Amino acid sequence: MTTTRIIGAFARYALAHILFGKPVSPFPGHSLARIGLLSIGLLSFGMPLMAAAATDDEKQFAYGVVERNATAMAKIGDSLYYFAELGMQEFESTKLMKEVLEAGGFTVELGAAGMPTNLWAHWGSGRPAIAIVTEIDALPEGSQTPMELARKPLVAGAPGHMEGHNTHGGLAAAAAFAVKETMTRYSIPGSVILSLGPAEEQLISRPYIVRAGYFKNVDAIIYLHIGDQSATGYGLANYASISANFAFHGKTAHGAVDPWDAKDALDAVELMDAGAAYLRQQLHPTYRMHRVITNGGVQPNVIPDLAEAWWWVRDANMPDAKETFEKLVNVGKGAALMTGTSVDYHIVAAGWPQLGMKAIAEAIQGNIDKIGMPRWSEEEQRFARELQKSAGRPEVGLKTAVTPLGGRPQSYASNDNGDVSWSVPAGLLAFPSIVPGITIHEWHAAITPTSSIAHKGMVTGAKVLTASVLDLLTRPEFLQRARLEFDQAVKATPYFAVLPADAKPPLDLNKAIMDRFRPEMRKFYLAERPRLN
Ligand SMILES: [Zn+2]
Prior knowledge:
Bound molecules: zinc ion
Shape: globular
Largest sheet: 6 strands, mixed
C-alpha cells in the first residue's frame, strides 16, 4: 500500500465516522457539535480529503475488473434471457444470481420481505451504504429467437425478455463485484448492496421491500434500467400509479323467467364505467385512468352475480393519483348503490413516481461523459438499421453520443422503484443496450437482448455504474447534497404507503403461465453457470 493510499483510506475512515458515525443515522439533525466535528474533519484532513475522492487510479482499476468480466457478465444476461421468468416466478434467475454473487463474495438473502424471488446481496460493513437497485423479470408472450428479424418465438406463446431486464442482472452483478474488488484493493470503507426486486413489470414488490425496512440503513441508491442511450436525470422521472380490482357482488336469476329477482353485477361494472367517464372532467390535467373488464359474466340468460373490473389510475404525483383513486372508489360505491349490489376492491399495485436527486445525477453524468458510448462495429450499425426498418421505424442506427444532463421529460409510465426513491436519495441510470426506436413490451425488443449490441452497452453501463457507486462511497459531498435535496422533497411531499397495512405480496402471480411453459422453455436453458473473477 502506498502512503497516499494509507492516508486516503484513513481520511475516508475518519470522514465516514464523522459523517455516518455508527450507530447514528446519516446526517442526523445538524447539531452544532456535529458541524464543529465536520469542520475540524475538513480542516485537519484537507489534503487527504482531496485524495479521498474516487481517484482515476481506483476507477481505472474498477474498469479493469469490469472488462475482464465482460464475457461472464454477458453470459449471466444471456442465461436470464433464456429463463425468461415472469414476475414473482424468477426462481431459476435468482438461483443463478445467488450463486454468482455468493461466489463473488457477497452475502445473499433470498426471500426478503416475504417474497421468495426477492434478492438482497450485501458486501462490506457500515456506512456509507450504497445500493444498486434493479429487476430481472420478463414479459408474457415475449418469446422470440434472438437476432431473427421475423416473428419466430422460441416457444410459441411463452414469456420472453422483450424489455431486456435480463441485461440488468449481468450488469448489476458485475458492477457490484467491481465495486467490491476496488473497495478491497483501496481499503474504501462502507457497504455495497444489490437489490433485485421481483415483478417490476406489474409494479409489485418495492413497496413491500420499503415497508420491511430494507432501505433504512442505505445512504443512496442507483436505479439501473436498460435504454437506447447512456443517460441519467433528476426530478420526477415518471408517473405515480395505483391499480385496483373492483368486484361487484349481486344476485343471479334467469334473464327471461325472473329477472326482477336479480341484482346484476355487470350493470354495476358498466355504471361505474359511466360514472368514471363523467368524473374525467373534474380531474387534474395530468391524470391517466384506464380499465379492463376481467369478469363480465358467463352468458346473457344468466344474470351475473359477480362482475369485476381492473382499474389503473396514474398522475404526475402520488397525492393527486390518490385523490383520483378515492373519487373512483366513490363512483364504484355509487354504482353498487344504484344496482343493489355490493362492491369490494383490493389494490393490486401502487407505485410512487421515481424521484432522482440532482447531486447523484451529476456524479453519474460525470462518469457517462468520461466513459462515452460503446464503439459500435459497422456490422452492429447495419443490423440496427435492418431491425429499425423491419419494425417500421426510422433507420437511424445506434446512438454514438451520450445524452447530456437535463431536458428529459417526465415519462407517463410507472415503476415500483418509485417507492424506494421516496425512502432514500436515488440516482437513475440508463445504459445503451436497446436499438433506438424499438419499443419495449413488443416482440421486436426481444431480438437483441443477447446481441453484441446489448453486451457492449452492458460494459459501458457497468463502468458508469461502478464509477458512480465509488464516487458516492468516497466523496461525501455528493451524499450530503443528495440528502439535503431529498429532505426538501419529502418535506414538500411526505411519503405515505398506498398499500393497505395488511396487504400481502401476490406470490402466485404468473405461476400458472410459468407452470404451463417452463417445461418447453427449459430446453433452451444455457448449460454454463458463469462466474465473476
Ligand atoms: Zn423495465
